[in-house]
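New here. Your pick:
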Amino acid sequence: MISADDFVLQLIQDRGLVDPDTARLALDHLRAEDVTENLESHALELLVDKGYLSWDDITGALAAEFDMEVVDLALVRPTDQALAKVGRELSEKHNVLALDFDGVRRLTLAVGDPLDTEMVDGLSRLLKVDIKSMLATPKALKEAIAHHYAGENEVENSLSQQIFGGGADESSIKIDLPNGSEAGTKEEDAPIIRYVNSVITQAILRRASDIHLEPLEKRFRVRYRIDGVLQEVENPPKRLQASILSRLKLMAEVSLAEKRIPQDGRIQVKANGKDIDLRVSVLPTVYGESIVMRILDKEGLRLGLPELGFFSDDQAVFQSLITAADGIFLVTGPTGSGKSTTLYAALNYINQPDRKIITVEDPVEYQMFGINQVQVRREIGMTFSAALRAMLRQAPNIIMVGEIRDLETAEIAINASLTGHMVFSTLHTNDAPSAVTRLVDIGVKPFLVSASLRGVLAQRLIRRICPNCSAPYTPTSKELTSLGMTERDLVGADFRKGAGCSKCGGTGYKGRRGIFEMFVVSEEMQELVYRGASLVELRHKARELGMRTMREDGVRKVASGMTTTEEVIGATVAVE
């Protein structure tokens, strides 16, 4: 209610809105009813109820008295920035509504009581802003607050239903935060907390590898990367952007105040009993901070070699290469092609109690039992090359270098392989034979490459047909031509497609597998590398010796019913 109601009651009489006799009769009636507390306040309510005046009349009188502007909240749309600045709790507590905020210092606020200057001054100090007050009726303020903050009250119910409807049961969701970031949260933060937890848990349940939260000009977009493809889900209201981003930054233990530079953090959660790490990247953009969370599932790391997508013949070659006594084995491919997963699976396969394995990574994505893992820290001089030198003094049997990026790292890795160590690493090349020319290009002598390199695995990831809705399919002649297949290749083939079901989200695909190009450095190949043969010569000789290209491996997987022609065509280039 309006405070200082005796002043207001006198004001409406002075302005002729109610005659003094009517006001006195209202007070006498209330006294007869034994009303003693807030007498003038109840008198105003009685006069409005009986139709002698309206709240609009009272607000107009106050506006004229204090030279203030009246705002019709039914015609005004508060900005998301203003709503976020004041928040639901303060708005309901003081019956005020933020209308506009310039992002720096000036806040326009609708109030119902122009006499409560103490409240306005307190908000100004609390929010560190200069406040311009406008008048609105108390009833209109309450209705507007309920309307404009409705999404915040219902975010964990209505949003989750819209975003995740038809998915896993929300009642099964349970997120535990070991780093204690729940401490100090307020009751009004609970809907945001539940929404953020739902976003994370549903991403895990839907097998997403990344969560993207992207501020755009007029909306706040949320997308999951599932099986390598970004899928947009229902977006939360733009006004909740600041609250959601602040919650995630708190969980990732990065600075909430810093909004000008990129930040990296980590969230460790236990979701439905599973230990999950989320690597968090915060990037300032024009419309706010963009957050991408890479989901690192420790349990998903324990892949066997068949789960990577190897057929038995390629798996046998792969096993023989990774179990060699010394030398270098490289995995190549673009970002997101599964190189790290393949290397981790290889280390998991050869991890035995009688072997010492050390890795140097940037960053350490998965923490593996029984393996010594070193984090690159360039700011203090802990580079790949510096870490490699130190690792060699630890007498390891097997070394894994996250990536060979420069000559210094390459030379140390090669020297390590020549002194009895098995070295694993990655390179960014388009195919397997290109790894040889890439090493030579960065400055490694061809005779060192020839002596140390044991093999190269180039790979891409393709989506696997959902086993639940997989159905027989006859490819068109155009599809067969695109893959370099003929009608004869249909004999014995099991072409399939996914119809789309609830288990795969209607996509027809569930999970991913690799398609591979295995380049083995035989004695003949060593000779070619030693004398500096060109990439064309290396590829030609490898094909003569039986190397299967990624496109050809993809064709085999299409014919086996593992994937579709579209996936292989999209991930590979035509066979030469």
Summary: DSSP finds 22 helices and 19 strands in the chain.
